[in-house]
Amino acid sequence: MTRHVDVLIIGAGLSGIGMACHLTRARTGRSYAILERRSAVGGTWDLFRYPGIRSDSDMLTFGYGFRPWHGTKVLADGPHIRRYIADTADEYGVLPHIRFGRKVVRASWSGAEGLWTVEAVDEQTGESEIYTSNFLVGCTGYYDYDNGYRPTFPGEENFRGPIVHPQHWPEDLDYRGKRVVVIGSGATAITLVPAMSGDAEHVTMLQRSPTYVTALPADDPVAVGMKFARVPAAAAYKVGRARNIALQRASFQLSRTNPRLSRRLLLAAVRAQVGSAVDMRHFSPRYNPWDQRLCVVPGGDLFRVLRSGRASIVTDHIETFTENGIRLVSGEELPADIVISATGLTVQMLGGARLEVDGREVVTRDLVSYKGTLLGNIPNAMVVIGYTNASWTLKADLAAEYFCRLLNHLRDKGYDRFVAVPTPEDISDESMMGGALTSGYVQRGNAVMPRQGARGPWQVINNYFRDRTLLRKGPLEDGVLRFERTTVAADPAAEIRSA
């Protein structure tokens, strides 16, 4: 049985739910459905269940622009974020439009029919289902839900304890009174160390190289103050959100224009937190600030457990695993009962689905991004990729608003198709994420991610203020994005949709 909607959204995480809400808010009049592989909304925040899981961006900018986040925590934990996404979906009537348990395996565009045909597998029954739509939106993020990045460690077969990746945290993992080594230096490792140190005998964070970290208050003092002063929630959210967007941008801009000063400020703040108890070489990266994503420590929890001695940090390389721990290149041995491999993500586009245009398979690496939202030569489609140097949701919101602008423009002008068409001079060999960060997952994702354009609207800006103007107010008909009126064959599911 074929199921047809105007807009088919893949993924019911933060981006997919936001896109559905925007379709309603912008009064596009378009029918939509969401295909979600998991059994609940939330995406990343439903998948990750490791101790202490929390956002790595402040919630005033990580929340949707159209629906205030009412908490005062700077960073919120996973369960609260899942609840926020689910409540948003409920408020905008999105839940009845979601088909859970559907893994999308193929998305194919037919120019002759003017339709996307999407094949999904019901993972409970194993049966294939076919959906058609006029427009397709990929809201799957950019990593593989099945496989986190997990290098093979020398001698790991000799280790007698479990080696766990945070992406697949066992519900029955008991680390009480155990010696734990967390391999990694990113946001996940920095979250796990203080979260586990309360119950573990000792937690060691083992890193090959340091990451820039900064402490922020656990509760936003301005948000607390406005709540105490009984400022209306919507107004408080708007003011706090604008402030935090400006602070994010200023921090990033300082790191680009004066990296030495930015480095001195960040390291001085860490030194004030750890005192003389911790060697500063563990917090002094070789790269400049914001060449990789800055890690936030709410309430200084990481620094507190390091000062207390319940946790420690080691910067070294692994020589080999042993039966009872890890031997390092320096000769030091780290005793361990459990090893956590917080080593990052495996990058993947469209949840691993095969992409086709008029019967020809399309490789996402060969495509170029238009305004950071559309893909060159792919008609009637958008892939939502959030910011790497700010909150993901800031860009996801702007992309959804832009998509709704396009839909309403098509309706008002009598068009039924759009496609961004690049010339050879528009395309570069750089990943659309490569210009912002040098993180490991960004480098590994170079083989998968679409390209960064060489000029004009093909360049990914990663600047909220410029994107806001470009996507909300920039001309739609700019000579690059093409619109068409076509005589399309009869809708293969018209009777079903009508019924």
UniProtKB/TrEMBL annotation:
Superkingdom in the source lineage: Bacteria
Keyword hit for Glycosyltransferase: no
Primary localization class, coarse: membrane
Catalytic activities: ethionamide + NADPH + O2 + H(+) = ethionamide S-oxide + NADP(+) + H2O
Entry-linked InterPro entries: FAD-binding_MO, FAD/NAD-bd_sf, Flavin_mOase-like
Location within or outside the cell: Cell membrane
Gene Ontology molecular function: flavin adenine dinucleotide binding; N,N-dimethylaniline monooxygenase activity; NADP binding
Pfam families xref list: FMO-like
Cofactor(s) required for function per UniProt: FAD
SUPFAM superfamilies: FAD/NAD(P)-binding domain (SSF51905)
Keywords: Cell membrane, FAD, Flavoprotein, Membrane, Monooxygenase, NADP, Oxidoreductase
Keyword match Electron transport: no
A single Gene Ontology CC term: plasma membrane
Sequence similarity: Belongs to the FAD-binding monooxygenase family.
Described function: Monooxygenase able to convert a wide range of ketones to the corresponding esters or lactones via a Baeyer-Villiger oxidation reaction. Can act on long-chain aliphatic ketones (2-hexanone to 2-dodecanone) and on aromatic ketones (phenylacetone and benzylacetone). Is also able to catalyze enantioselective sulfoxidation of methyl-p-tolylsulfide. In vivo, likely functions as a BVMO, but the exact nature of the physiological substrate(s) remains to be established.
Protein name according to UniProt: FAD-containing monooxygenase EthA
Provenance organism: Nocardia terpenica
